[in-house]
TrEMBL record:
It comes from the Eukaryota. This is Signal recognition particle subunit SRP72. TPR repeats lie at residues 224-257. It is found in: Cytoplasm; Endoplasmic reticulum. The keyword Amino-acid biosynthesis does not apply. It comes from Leucopsar rothschildi (Bali myna). Residues 608-642 have a biased composition (Low complexity). Gene3D superfamilies: Tetratricopeptide repeat domain (1.25.40.10). Residues 92-147 form a coiled coil. GO terms for biological process: SRP-dependent cotranslational protein targeting to membrane. Residues 541-597 form the Signal recognition particle SRP72 subunit RNA-binding domain.
Amino acid sequence: KMAAAAGAAAGLWSEVNRCGQNGDFARALKSVNKILQINKDDVTALQCKVVCLIQNGNFKEALGVINTHTKVLTSDVIAFEKAYCEYRLNRIESALKTIQSASQQTDKLKELYGQVLYRLERYDDCLAAYRDLIRNSQDEYEEERKTNLSAVVAAQSTWEKVVPEDLGLREATYELCYNSACALIGQGKLHEAMKKLQKAEELCRQSLSEDSDATEEDIEAELAIIHGQMAYIMQLQGRTEDALQLYNQIIKLKPTDVGLLAVIANNIITINKDQNVFDSKKKVKLTNAEGVEHKLSKKQLQAIEFNKALLAMYTNQADQCRKLSASLQSQSPEHLLPVLIQAAQLCREKQHAKAVGLLQDFAEQHPANAAEIKLTMAQLKIAQGSVTKACMILRSIEELQHKPGMVSALVTMYSHEEDIDSAIEVFTQAIQWYQQHQARTNHGCCVFQPKSPVHLSLIREAANFKLKHGRKKEAISDLEELWKQNPKDVHTLAQLISAYSLVDPEKAKVLSKHLPSSDTMSLKVDVDALENSHGATYVRKKAGKLTGDNQQKEQGQGEVKKKKKKKKGKLPKNYDPKVTPDPERWLPMRERSYYRGRKKGKKKDQVGKGTQGSTTTGSSELDASRTASSPPTSPQPGSGAAVSATSNVIPPRHQKPAGAPATKKKQQQKKKKGAKGGW
């Protein structure tokens, strides 16, 4: 029996070997199972079974076999297969422990170790692992290792903003070109990145066209990720229409990569913003596909969740927005976006005070991020009309107090509130900050340094502001400080003299001696050339040569002009030199103090009475003076155009009866026009 069993086992092993060489792992697995029926603890058979299951994609079953036979399949024997199954089942932490617990680090384990570190986003360790592999390996997989190495560098540039080092890799494949483009995008070099992607597309087409089995659809599917990155660059460059068109083309191809689809859908949502919400709601479903969380980095997944919360806010799903933002805040308590989304949602619900309180609590709990939060709080206060409170919040941001932009904003806001003292105080504090940080200590002594351009600019702006608002004495001290820094600055000296002339004229005279003489100030300018230049607004006409007769005429006209005397003004006919002229004679009659208005005669009041021209309209409505003084009104919906204050309304006495021939003519003209063109 034992001999028969041994013979059967030998035949089965031959079958396993033949099937393995042919790649028929399903049949090989059947033969291995028969061997295990003969000897269930056969280590080689168990190993072969695990390999067959892995080749068939049954990672969970393979891991079950390993865990069931731990006594036989020790970590030294099956470490790689166990770690690989855990890696494929997205149990990355478990795979890392399995690799680290192995007694011997084989090349296969090192390769897998690099992949695991990449998935865990431990890019520095991953880079070291791949460098070690490339240095100590010589086989046909060298190109793949270099591709993985370039992918790590690209990830560092994109997610950690690390300036990538030049690895000296020859970009002979489209994968290497693509990774190089990703690294350039991380550095913000979009134009160069686009060129790399175009080269990657060309190399990809060449590579796949050499494969006779590859169809055009296969080529487009492989190019999808390259085109997706191209569209992303277009989006960053502001070419949103081109980006949107390319994104939609990729979605129509229905690529199998759920990670790629999720990223493209997210980018389309960011382009749509609060517009085209229906399309965004359809696209967001692509981000919820199964397995997306294993295909994307943590920052990519976080960005998608942020956009889901914003989309919920734009679609008025308040509860969903709060739920998503609260979940994001629990995952990343120090992140700004979740609390900003919550505050935005509260503002949409008109709960501004609650939004400000929420931001205030966050700023107190996370001082490192307080500056951005306080800027948002100030914006909310300005929206509510509380400009002074907004200024108080802005002034509490110590790291921004001295910045020129902040100083400018505060001064503008205080000026709007007519709080000039506070505006000047802002200038003073900023100038003092620069004075404290400008001096440097050398062996306990303060060494003088020239003031920085920003410091001098603030002093000048402060002086101009004080002069504008009548604070001349305060402005003088600032101008003197500026002149002390640059005694050759004529503009500052002129401002200083101007300010002193209003306060201390004698001092202004003394300072005016420092002004350069008119000779040194004169500029050697050819006036004729300047006036006749291309950009001159006035060009003097060239005077032609005068002939003898013309010259005499010109001289004669000149003499006449010189002799011409000014005519005396004409006096009124009823002028009496003995009578004092009316002091109000220059005013219109209605504006004079003694004007009592025109007396209305009885006949004027009775206009319109009688049988002829009788109307039911009151005299007040027909009073042209009242119509002229009343403001024009907007036309009601469906009415004609508004009549202006100076309307050309025909007075009642000239108004023609309803059935007058002129009216009929007008009606006929309208009918003709309608019949002609159908306007």
